[in-house]
Design brief:
Layout lengths: L13 E9 L7 H10 L9 E5 L6 E10 L6 H17 L6 E2 L4 H10 L6 E2 L2
Parallel strand pairs: 1-3, 4-5
Antiparallel strand pairs: 2-3
């Protein structure tokens, strides 16, 4: 087993990169900003998602943008909802998802089951 700890996930080969976006702001991905935000007018409203194929322009095949809504309305519950939405959307697209969290094992397993996941859960 290989474990990597990185600060910039944009440079790691994967099926999908999930980025978030507050309403009225840009994402951390130039490609997402160009096509989703500027050309397709993605707004970043809470719960809104946009799946963008990269067509080999990045080391990941797709970018999933998750809207976080207005920054001033953002809170931990909205973060949980946004993460759950991103996981569900990725699973719908056939991405194998693993959860690594600082939650207690029972809490992490509960979260995974509620999302209909059958995957490894790493917790402490």
């Amino acid at each position: 087993m290989e474990i990597k700890v990185v600060q910039d996930a944009k440079n790691i080969e994967s099926d999908i990169l999930v980025v978030s976006m507050f309403e009225g702001e840009k994402t951390a991905s130039d490609l997402a900003n160009k096509y989703a935000v500027e050309e397709d007018n993605f707004k970043g409203k809470f719960g809104e998602t946009y799946l963008l194929p990269t067509y080999g322009k990045e080391v990941y095949r797709k970018i999933l943008i998750v809207g976080l809504g207005k920054k001033e309305d953002f809170n931990p519950n909205k973060l949980r909802e946004a993460v759950a939405k991103a996981i569900k959307k990725a699973m719908q697209k056939g991405v194998y998802v693993t959860i690594a969290t600082g939650r207690m094992p029972a809490s992490a397993s509960y979260f995974a089951r509620n999302l209909g996941m059958n995957c490894p859960v790493v917790s402490c």
